[in-house]
TrEMBL record:
This is Integrase. Residues 1-142 form the Tyr recombinase domain. The keyword NADP does not apply. GO terms for biological process: DNA integration; DNA recombination. Keywords: DNA recombination. Pfam families: Phage_integrase. InterPro entries: DNA_brk_join_enz (IPR011010), Integrase-like_cat_sf (IPR013762), Integrase_catalytic (IPR002104). One of its GO terms (molecular function) is DNA binding. It comes from the Bacteria.
């Protein structure tokens, strides 16, 4: 996400409802939805930030031609977590990803959708990632294909 460019999110002066990022680990594209609150926040940020479609959404604080580093992003998450009174040791960039996937799975029961959102090639990896019972999850996934 730190490597996204403004053009990846904006079209015709509006923040898109969906965007695609290339997963660094697998090199595969993963599509995600930008809900109204996120779009409004991004639009406010981009209006303040300025820039062109070729600029990074979140520039480096050191090299403004570069993007925010994953380490700096992790530091920011630590600050946000601490700022709202939570324990830094319990929340991080990866736990937020896992939490969002778990929320979607609990709300929909759609394991295949979570697999696609996470960019996993095998449903078994998604099951393991979510920490759910394999047999129950696979049976449910067969009944909720998207």
């Amino acid at each position: 996400m730190v490597q996204m460019k403004i053009g990846d999110l904006v079209s015709g002066g509006q923040v898109r409802t969906r965007a695609i990022v290339m997963q660094q680990k697998t090199g595969r594209p993963v599509q995600f939805e930008l809900l109204p609150d996120a779009r409004a926040s991004l639009l406010a940020w981009l209006e303040r930030r300025g820039g062109t479609v070729d600029d990074y959404v979140f520039p480096s604080r050191v090299d403004h031609n570069g993007h925010l580093s994953t380490r700096q992003y992790a530091r920011l998450v630590d600050e946000w977590v601490t700022g709202v009174g939570l324990m830094r040791s319990e929340y991080g960039t990866h736990s937020l990803r896992r939490t969002k996937a778990s929320i979607i799975y609990r709300a929909t029961g759609n394991l295949r959708a979570v697999q696609i959102l996470l960019g996993h090639s095998k449903i078994e990896n998604t099951v393991r990632y979510l920490g759910i019972d394999v047999e129950d999850a696979l049976a449910l996934a067969e009944n909720t294909e998207i």
